[in-house]
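Dear colleagues,

As part of the handover before I leave the project, I'm documenting each prediction I ran so the next person doesn't have to rerun anything. This entry is a single chain, and its sequence is reproduced below.
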Amino acid sequence: MIMQIKQLFTQKWHVSYSQFVWLVSLYFVIAFNGLFLFNTLEAASKPEHVNWLFIASVPFFLLALTAMVLSWLSLITFVKPVLLTSIVVSSLLFYATLNYGVIFDKSMLQNILETNSGEAFSYLNVQVIAFITVLGVLPAYLFCRFKIVGNFRVRLKSFTLLNVTAFIAVAVIAVPFYKDYASVGRNNRQLTSYITPFAFYTAGYKYLRDNYFYPPLPFKVLDKTPHLLAKQQSSLTIMVVGETARAANFSLQGYNKQTNQYTPKLGVKYFSDVSSCGTATAISVPCMFSRLDRNHYDSRIAQSQENALDIIQRSGVEVTWIDNNSSCKGVCARVNSQTVEPTKSNPLCDGRYCFDEVLVEELAAKLAKSSAKHQLIVLHMIGSHGPTYYRRYPEKDSKFLPDCPRSDIQNCSTEQLTNTYDNTIAYTDLVLSKLIKLLQNSPADDKALLYVSDHGESLGEKGLYLHGFPYALAPKEQTHVPMLFWSNKLADTRFNQCIEQQRNHAFSHDNIFDTLLGLTHIQSTEYRPEQDIFNTCSTQS
């Protein structure tokens, strides 16, 4: 037996170019596209009259297409490097899709590329390494043992024969089943997102095209002369950008566990119907500060024009961004910004991450050394960033047990996973309460704190974990986000009652741009009062 295994890993097999591509293509279909085939079967089985011949044709159709695409990607000369690399990449993609329900579209790819090394390594565990080794590295090594015979001319002939054969196969399958393919594809557009690795490669092409091949857009100044309203009062506005907090797990939302123990005692107002702009930080954070709404948001356009922070800063308000996450995603490019360094000398940090209480320290330090009359400070939390939820709160704040101290969260029980995530929400509530107390002690006349999460999170519902699902298909858990508001003006009865009436209305990240301008008392041509959540109440107070 040992000799047979040794022979398997040392023997060389002689094959033609087309044989090699067909074999690798077959492996792709069998090893990495089971979810695509299963989802296609499920979609095609819904009609009353199921065409089983059509369903049976799908694997062969996919095989022929895969062979054609792989042959063109490899360009005859680079067949082994391209195909073997694709096998390893596909094993990683398939792991993420199989275990977390991740779909690799352009937005998800952008989120991945903007992830720092600390976040990336948080996904590594023994199961990931074993999965990639078994389905990726070892098969790639075995295919490496194949020797492709023939010179370039022979390979070119084999390449041509492969493509002609594959094209004929596609045509023979597509013609009689055209209506079935068109119907299933039109009604289930997400299916192509499961084809591994080509959905990822398509997303990669779109990302490179949009970010590197398109000519840069000229930068657009939205308002050259914004100004503060005629007010003698000093003001301090804190905008807290949450991370991966879903509304469903806030006791303020009606959740049956006490995840909001601290902020209700301080009189915060909770907004129960708020939607995010995206399902990933790379989209949601720039979008919420952009003049563009969700339906018209385009990252290229957003990056080439001013955002809310730029306008507020030009009006004379001191704007600062303090980050305890991966980055501000370009939002703070033109304002004062600082990133918390996770040095081990700080008891709130472990060398790779810092607990969000570090933002309380940073805010206190900032307020102590600033003499600005009007300030806007944005605090970007690490919040409930997964999959290592257990690293987002100190052990002493493990309120809900047993928790899940591991990154392969799909292997935790539902109770453990939920407890761990709930601990992150409870810890966020503690941090927010400490930030509000800092505000209460500030000498500023007009003080306010607005907290809103960038997106939500899936915790195993419908087999989905984490976030980043295409927005049109995303479950509510990934788009329904919490929003909290505190202001010293809430002591005014009329203002308090007005906010109370507003807090159950439907809002979204589209409202943040104008709400920030309103909170900081900015007069601007870009300000739309009907989009400002607090405008009605401010005019009454």
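The two ends are 84 Å apart (CA to CA). The longest helix spans residues 414-440.

All the best with the project,
I.
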